[in-house]
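Re-run requested by the PI after the first attempt was lost when the workstation crashed. Everything re-entered from the original request form. Ligand of interest: iron/sulfur cluster.
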Amino acid sequence: MNLDEILLKAEREHALTRGEIVKLLKTRGEDLKKLYKAADRVRSKYMGDTVYLRGIIEFSNYCKQNCKYCGLRRDNHRLERYRLQPEEIVSMAEKATKLGYKTVVLQSGEDDYYDTDMVEWIIREIKNRMDTAITLCIGEREYEEYKVWREAGADRYLIRHETADPGLYHRLHPGMSLEQRIERLRWLKELGYQVGSGNLIGLPDQDEESISRDILLFKELDLHMVGLGPLVVNPDTPLKDYHNGSVEMALKTIAITRLLLPLAHIPGTTALGSLDPEGRQKALKAGANVVMPNVTRGKYRPLYELYPAKICVDEEPENCRQCIGSIITSLGRVVGTDYGHSPRIEKGEV
Ligand code: 5AD
Ligand code: SF4
Ligand code: FES
C-alpha cells in the first residue's frame, strides 16, 4: 500500500498493521503534512473543536523509583525535595477550579508518605468542596488502594508504560517491570477509572519499530487517554550524555495514535512545549485535543524538575490559564467548560 492508501484505511477503519505504522513513522515532507491533516480530520470528526484543560498540581517531588531519565529519581541528591500537606493540596485545587478548571490532576513521584487514607481524604475533601473531576497520577500502588480511591470519587488515572519493549523498559527502570506496569493499567480499567498511558519518544535504542509497538499497545489496552512526549535530557541523571528526543517523531506518534484511537483524549504535553515553543500548538493541529497546564503555586514549581528548561516554571497559574486560552482561541478552537470525561464513558461504554 502507498501512503495515501494507508491513510485512507486508517481514517476508515482505525486499524493498521505494525508495518503500516512504521511506514507512517518514517514519512517526511509533503507526506508528513498529509499524515497530520488526516489526524486533524479524525480529531475534528470525533472530538470536535473543544480543547479540554487539566490543571496539574505537582504535590510532591519525592520518588522511591530510580528511572534513568528522570530528575525526580531517588538517587538525584541535587534536587531540593518538597511535599505539600493535604490541606494545601485541597486549597490549590480550589484555586484551580476558581480559574475554571473542571479537572485537577494530582501528580507526584512515587511517594509512600501519602498513604491510602491520606489520598482518600484529599479526594473526598475536593469532591465535597468543589465541582471538579479528579485525575490521579501517583504511580504504582496496590489494587486495594486504587479501589478505595475510586470509591472515594477519583475519576481517572494516568500511568505511562514509557516503552513497550520489555528489555528497554527493564534497563531504564531498575527494579520495575513492564509486566507489572501493564497489570496495573488493567486493574485500573477494571475498577472503572478512565485510564491513560503513554510513552517517551527518543529513548536509547528505540526505533520506529519499537514506537509502533507502543502505539499498538495503546490500542490493545483500549485507553481513554494517551499522553506522550519527547525525552528531554536531564544533566543530573544517568542519561545525561544522551540527546533529546525528536519533536517531529512525537508529533507523528500523536497523529497515528489519533488515527487508531479516534475517541482518546490526547494532550499536547509540556515536554513538547519545552523542546519547541510551538510544540503544544503543533500537537493540537496533529490530533491532540487536551492541554495540561500547571496549577501548582508558590516556590514549588521549579522544583518539580523532571527535566531542565521546563516551560512555565516562573509563571503563576493565572498567567498560564490566560496564555493557554489565547493559544486555543488563536487556533480557532474553544476551551471546554464541562468535565471532559471520555466520550466513551458518556455513552455508557467502558
Ligand atoms: N524527559 C521527558 N519526560 C520525562 N518524564 C520523566 N522524565 C522525563 C524526561 N527527562 C516523564 C515520564 C513520566 C512523566 C511523569 O514524565 O514519561 O511518566
Ligand atoms: Fe519517579 Fe516517575 Fe520520575 Fe520514575 S518517572 S523517577 S517513577 S517521578
Ligand atoms: Fe504557562 Fe503559556 S501555558 S505561560
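Saved to the shared folder this time. The chain has a mean pLDDT of 97.
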